[in-house]
Write a structure and sequence with these properties.
The structure holds two protein chains of two kinds. Chain A is an alpha/beta fold. Helices cover about 40% and strands about 15% of the residues of chain A. The chains are: A alpha/beta, B alpha/beta. Chains A and B meet through helix 4 and helix 5 of A and helix 3 and helix 5 of B.
Chain lengths: ~280, ~300
């Protein structure tokens, strides 16, 4: 990846974080922590890795992205809007009556949403089903699944993690957004999930561990997906919960939280500053 | 005398036949494909039988994913495990998004038999009826099963089909045509209307014979579509008989009897409704016939209950 491509991706990630914050606004509870931690993964996928655009998002052999951690779907809404599939202005209707932007993913209501998730632990199984059909139809497209790390406590994840390698679904890639926190606190304290590479490797996955905010590293490993048609790829992406807003980082406090106007302003200033810094860098 | 056949056997034959005609048809199972008869699809295409291991939750979600790609997935297990273990997956990923998944629930009811209470499903209709978008079908014999599976194949959306390992006589004619959401009239009578669903219909028809011999005028109706529910026909039947009785191999709570009561409660007057079924208890090991006898769901048990109600 050349420096300009990387820079464009960093700009996009900064725009997504800012629009995410503005979508959420003040006074209503939203999932800040786990959406902000996923932003770079989503940016790498939609804006570099996947065969996906406003013109191709309905074709049968498109690549697909499923948010198994369904509560973080607002990142996907913002990215889909930035791709031109939704109106950015309508993002603010999120979680209100009549909005196409439901609190959790609804594939019947929202263009670009590929799976019904939100009840945790079900996204990888659904992706396996898509992948089985893709293989049966001879399609080369791939399915990417973003899971939470707390979500790995669900038993169904491990049923699905057996199925993917068993059926040699090399067209599946799972990315664990390993931000270290779940609703009530630190994962290590509540119910530990490590060692993740060893676990998934022993299940038959080709496993990588990367910095989930390093867009170059993410893209490098994500572009390997599908190259070996028989071996699925699992990426443990080490992330920071609340990434990009200093006071939200590395805590579960903002997992589902309503911002005060003062908190909103502080967060917005930080994200605007980041975007301006990156834009200035581009102008140089 | 015609040979006895279980609805699960008819299901396997029909699944195989429709899979031969339609390459979008797949079957999934959880290590019970021999028993559920889903493995029959292998006779036409081994690659369209997907063994999911003993993992019902994964199976249902995976089926929903395949369905999102235009496949028609027949998902199989025992009724008790399919509806119990995978209830959330059915709710979230099949019913809610209207996935084109066919939930084929084998070994339903007490007549599952020797495996005992853990394996006998007497609450599955209740669980499935409560789900928006879910169609619930319950065939009584092999001929009707064939027609219902063919209907489910062409219907676009989630369908729950209650199947049985209990072999019964053929009740419906060879040229039977299934009418969706239609209560079927098998006999008419004025003293009592017996309204059944599933293979228990055989016991109900025998009860009809015995009641008729004793001089009672007795109607027999079958409900192959439990959801949606044909309330119009039930209301019409209610005007013809002095007593209504639902008969089902299911708890008296939440099944056919409850569906009937919901309809009747919406009209100003109707005859008493007797709900014959499993009386809020679990089963136990035994033969199918022993279990039907103990729970008064065999022909004699039904006759006793009806005559007792009529003489009150």
């Amino acid at each position: 990846m050349n420096d300009n491509t990387l820079h464009q991706l960093e700009l996009e990630a900064a725009r997504i974080r800012l629009d995410l914050l503005r979508t959420f606004g003040t006074g209503k509870a939203h999932h800040f922590g786990g959406t902000l931690s996923s932003v770079d993964i989503v940016t790498a996928l939609y804006f570099h890795v996947m065969d996906y655009s406003k013109h191709t998002y309905q074709k049968a052999d498109r690549d697909r992205l499923i948010f198994s951690k369904g509560h973080s779907v607002p990142v996907q809404y913002v990215a889909l809007a930035h791709l031109g599939i939704h109106d950015v202005e309508k993002l603010k209707t999120i979680k209100t009556m009549g909005s196409v932007f439901q609190g959790h993913p609804d594939m019947r209501k929202t263009a670009g949403i590929e799976a019904p998730t939100g009840s945790l632990g079900q996204g990888l199984s659904f992706a396996n089903g898509i992948a089985l059909a893709q293989k049966a139809d001879g399609l080369k497209s791939r399915t990417f699944v973003i899971t939470g790390d707390g979500e790995l406590q669900e038993g169904q994840i491990w049923e699905a993690a057996m199925t993917t390698p068993h059926y040699k679904l090399g067209n599946v890639c799972a990315i664990v957004d390993r931000n270290g926190y779940q609703s009530q606190g630190s994962i290590d304290t509540l119910m530990g999930v490590e060692p993740l590479e060893k676990k998934f490797e022993s299940f038959g996955w080709e496993t990588y561990r990367v910095d989930g905010h390093d867009l170059r590293a993410l893209c490098e490993v994500l572009t390997r997906v599908g190259k070996n048609p028989d071996v699925p790829i699992m990426i443990i992406a080490d992330t920071v919960k609340g990434k990009g807003v200093s006071f939200m980082e590395a805590t579960h406090t903002y997992h589902n939280y309503a911002l005060s106007p003062e908190e909103f302003e502080k967060a917005e200033n930080e994200l605007v500053e980041r975007l301006e810094m990156l834009s200035a860098k581009e102008a140089e | 005398m015609m040979s006895r056949k279980a609805t699960r056997d008819a299901y396997g034959d029909t699944l195989r036949d429709i899979a031969a005609e339609d390459h979008a048809v797949f079957a999934m199972d959880c290590d019970l494909g021999g028993s559920t008869r889903a493995a029959k699809i292998r006779e036409v295409d081994p690659s369209r039988f997907i063994e999911m291991g003993i993992a019902e939750q994964d199976m249902v979600s995976t089926a929903a994913g395949m369905a999102s790609m235009g496949k028609i997935v027949f998902v199989n297990s025992f009724a008790v495990f399919l509806t119990g273990r995978a209830y959330d997956q059915i709710r979230q990923q099949v019913a809610l998004p209207r996935s084109n998944v066919k939930l084929c629930a084998s070994s339903s009811g007490l007549t599952q038999g020797a495996d005992g209470a853990t394996h006998q499903s007497v609450t599955d209709i209740n669980l499935m009826r409560g789900l928006p978008h879910m169609v619930v079908l319950s065939p009584a014999d092999a001929v009707q099963t064939d027609a219902i599976i063919r209907f489910a194949h062409t219907y676009k959306g989630p369908v729950y089909i209650r199947l049985s390992r209990y072999a019964t006589e053929q009740i419906f004619p060879d040229d039977y045509v299934f009418e969706f959401n239609q209560i079927e009239t098998l006999r008419t009578g004025t003293d009592v209307a017996l309204i059944a669903t599933g293979p228990i219909l055989e016991q109900v028809l025998e009860a009809h014979t015995r009641l008729t011999a004793r001089g009672y005028s007795c109607g027999v109706y079958h409900v192959p579509t439990i959801k949606p529910f044909d309330g119009d026909t039930l209301k019409a039947v209610a005007k013809t008989a002095g007593l209504l009785a639902t008969v089902e191999e299911h708890s008296i709570y939440g099944g056919l009897g409850s569906a009937a009561a919901e309809v009747l409660s919406s009209i100003p007057s109707h005859p008493p409704l007797v709900r014959i079924g499993v009386q809020d208890c679990f089963g136990e090991s035994g033969t199918a016939d022993e279990l039907l006898c103990k729970h008064k769901l065999d022909a004699e048990g039904i006759v006793e209950r009806i005559t007792s109600e009529l003489h009150q």
